[in-house]
Amino acid sequence: MDYVRTHHNKKRSRRNTDIKMSVNPATSRHIIASLEALEQFASQLAPQLIPGDVLALNGPMGAGKTTLTQLLGKHLGLQEKVTSPTFVLIHDYLSGSVPVVHADLYRLGTEGSNSLATELLDLLEESSAIVIVEWAEYGKFLEPYITLKLDLDYNSESSLPDQRIIHVTSHRPELHLPNDPTF
């Protein structure tokens, strides 16, 4: 499958190879009551992200993967509007404090994601960007690189329609997850 990649501003630099990966990941569960709470979550997480981090975002359609990416981008100082890369597959954002690569594997599915594997693996090996991948479950080739996995879902135990649950798995021991599990 052919795809288009959008580039926004400036040039990319080399990958940060100093990331320490933990074999015993830390996990946490966060109840997100509203969009404002999701922004608070993103505001606590974004400053801790470093070049070379790979965030895997999973969850059903409409769970908030792109919204979380937009909020992380805002708190990383991105000047351009962060949009879903569903149809172009990869967006580069280089206007913030650190370059951000935003990929979406939904249209590719499990088998089609291999067509994008080489491009993403090159980014992971060579880039000093933060890489955020929506529908990362379709890219099993990403697993060795994932530093932070965020599984977003609707909170079926809540009567509030906007409430979400985020299950976080961190492979970076020094990363401090937002300390309030309920926002």
What does this structure look like?
This protein has helices spanning 35-45, 65-75, 109-112, 114-126, and strands at residues 5-6, 26-32, 54-58, 90-93, 100-104, 130-134, 148-154, 164-170. 21% of the residues lie in helices and 23% in strands. A hairpin with a 6-residue loop joins β4 (90-93) and β5 (100-104). With 183 residues, the protein is an alpha/beta fold. It has one domain (5-12, 24-170): 3-Layer(aba) Sandwich (Rossmann fold), CATH 3.40.50. It has an 8-stranded mixed beta sheet with strand order 1-4-5-6-3-7-8-2, covered by helices on one side. It has 4 helices and 8 strands. α1 crosses α2 (65-75).
Briefly say what this structure is.
The chain is α/β, with parallel strands linked by helices and 183 residues long. The protein is 21% helix and 23% strand.
Observed structural traits:
Rossmann fold, 4 helices, eight-stranded mixed β-sheet, alpha/beta, 183 residues
How is the topology of this model organized?
Layout: E1 5-6, E2 26-32, H1 35-45, E3 54-58, H2 65-75, E4 90-93, E5 100-104, H3 109-112, H4 114-126, E6 130-134, E7 148-154, E8 164-170
Parallel strand pairs: 1-4, 3-6, 3-7, 5-6
Antiparallel strand pairs: 2-8, 4-5, 7-8
Helix pairs in contact: 1-2
